[in-house]
């Protein structure tokens, strides 16, 4: 039996009273492993250890934290195929997907380590004193970013590696200097346990403080609510549904000391299909979007769930090509039987709406828990009347909205909620003639794509994975890339502080040789 918690120095003090099992959607059966849900005592112990660890961990140098993150990556790789088998058994994903997502998880950890070694991410800013200034002297002021404190990370259902135990939220929070408590997702507890064991080994090998990382298992919302409401927790990271993210935001706001919740939530990721591009190569774009809609059984937050275009022959040809591609795409296994059931229910609900018709659906036999790719169609007029049609269906699904003209298409975009992405498919010379569409999308999305697909989120500094609510709870930040670190820090300013007592990043000699802003100039110079 595997305990419901993992953290440095922990011993199983009392078995939990609630047992949990995970589900293998590909085999359509429960996995044999048994887990115990974390108790209130274990929650309290994990948070207390994290708070104690913060006292020391926030003082660790960038090099020390980088060594820790690289050690985590090494220990995860050392788990080998055992981890991949566990991942596949709890997700239904094939081994290739497991290997790819593990690579992304490792890449994230190492990219944050590189950021820490370079060191300029702290945004050190110095305004030197001018004691002779009249009518009042100018004080010496130095500012940099410092960690918030213990962070709770909620593992996501659809990314057991990249957005879970050692995913982007955990990696960025540890890079910032914040201890992390992970609430493991109930669909892949075993995968989380294995990754957690690697993190713990890495922490011990690099002499990190006890409690710098914890992993707690729980099936319902009680565990998550207890963690968010705990007074020693200072921030929350979440990837999941709008209802789940909003519930956490509300809990955090109601605390005596409100804390930030950085939630990445729902998105239908509208795609605008301009006529010239469809005339030039409708087959190319139909194949690309059939692949994007069905990738990973459609279980991506960037899945293109809304295709927008003006009526015409080019759109009709695209729809025919898309139908052929969808009907020839074999279904993939979804993450859980409950998700597949919700997916089917979502399709039926939308197909029952006024003016909605079916364009395409896979017609062959579908094994249990596999998603049958489906495309529906509706006019722009009916879409504007019905909010149900703009809500996300999690799975291989999209709605084609046929607008009478560009003005109606822009109106459709303007009525959408905030989105992670917005895409324009067009010939390059078309863009200058459709500025209203571009401007409308800019107001609604976090990432604006030209002639591509929204699925596939590059992990780099320029990536923005977030967007206006409800795509994310704070559109100023990203959940992917090294800039994700800025969610877990706050600025702190030192006034007239003795140089030898300042953090190294702010000292006159600049011992870390980082880029700093000194008297309005970006430089690596000493003072």
Automatic annotation (TrEMBL):
Superkingdom of source: Bacteria
Q: In its UniProt entry, what is this protein called?
A: Aldehyde dehydrogenase (NADP(+))
Keywords annotated in UniProt:
Oxidoreductase
Give the Pfam families listed for this entry.
Answer: Aldedh
Q: Which CDD domains match?
A: ALDH_KGSADH
- GO molecular function terms noted in the UniProt entry: oxidoreductase activity, acting on the aldehyde or oxo group of donors, NAD or NADP as acceptor
Q: Could you list the residue ranges forming a coiled coil in this record?
A: none
Domain spans labelled Aldehyde dehydrogenase: 19-458
């Amino acid at each position: 039996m595997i305990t419901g918690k993992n953290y440095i120095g922990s011993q199983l003090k009392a078995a939990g009273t609630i047992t949990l099992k995970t589900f293998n959607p590909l085999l359509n059966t429960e996995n044999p492993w048994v887990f115990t849900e974390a108790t209130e005592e274990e929650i309290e112990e994990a948070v207390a250890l994290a708070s104690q660890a913060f006292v020391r961990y926030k003082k660790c140098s960038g090099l020390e934290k980088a060594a820790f993150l690289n050690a985590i990556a090494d220990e995860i790789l050392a788990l080998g195929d055992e981890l991949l088998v566990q991942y596949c058994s709890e997700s239904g994903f094939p081994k290739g997907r497991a290997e790819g997502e593990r690579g992304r998880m490792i890449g994230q950890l190492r990219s944050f380590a590189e950021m820490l070694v370079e060191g300029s991410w702290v945004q050190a800013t110095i305004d030197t004193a001018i004691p002779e200034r009249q009518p009042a002297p100018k004080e010496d002021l130095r500012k940099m970013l410092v960690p918030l404190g213990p962070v709770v990370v909620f593992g996501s259902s659809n990314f057991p590696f990249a957005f879970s135990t050692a995913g982007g939220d955990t990696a960025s929070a540890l890079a910032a200097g914040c201890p992390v408590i992970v609430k493991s997702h109930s669909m892949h507890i075993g995968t989380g346990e294995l990754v957690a064991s690697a993190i713990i080994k890495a922490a011990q090998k690099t002499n990190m403080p006890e409690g710098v990382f914890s992993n707690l298992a729980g099936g319902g919302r009680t565990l998550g609510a207890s963690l968010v409401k705990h007074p020693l927790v200072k921030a929350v990271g979440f990837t999941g549904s709008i209802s789940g993210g909003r519930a956490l935001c509300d809990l955090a706001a109601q605390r005596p000391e409100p804390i930030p919740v950085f939630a990445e939530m729902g998105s239908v990721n509208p795609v605008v299909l301009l006529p010239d591009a469809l005339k030039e190569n409708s087959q190319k774009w139909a194949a690309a979007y059939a692949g994007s809609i069905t990738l990973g059984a459609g279980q991506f937050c960037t899945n293109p769930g809304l295709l927008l275009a003006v009526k015409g022959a080019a759109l009709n040809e695209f729809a025919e090509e898309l139908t052929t591609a969808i009907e020839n795409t074999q279904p993939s296994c979804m993450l859980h039987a409950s998700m597949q059931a919700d997916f089917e229910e979502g399709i039926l609900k939308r197909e029952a709406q006024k003016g909605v018709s079916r364009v395409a659906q896979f017609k062959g036999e579908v094994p249990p828990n596999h998603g049958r790719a489906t495309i529906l169609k509706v006019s722009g007029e009916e879409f504007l009347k019905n909010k149900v049609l703009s809500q996300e269906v999690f799975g291989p699904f999209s709605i084609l909205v046929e607008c009478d003209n560009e003005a109606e298409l822009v109106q459709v975009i303007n009525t959408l909620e905030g989105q992670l992405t917005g895409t324009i498919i067009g010939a390059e010379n078309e863009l200058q003639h459709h500025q209203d569409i571009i401007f409308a999308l800019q107001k609604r999305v976090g990432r604006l794509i030209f002639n591509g697909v929204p699925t596939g989120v590059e992990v780099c500094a320029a990536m923005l994975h977030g967007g206006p609510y409800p795509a994310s709870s704070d559109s100023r930040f990203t959940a992917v890339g090294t800039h994700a670190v800025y969610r877990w820090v706050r600025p702190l300013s030192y006034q007239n502080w003795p140089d030898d007592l300042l953090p190294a990043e702010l000292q006159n000699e600049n011992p870390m040789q980082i880029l700093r802003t000194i008297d309005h100039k970006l430089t690596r110079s000493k003072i």
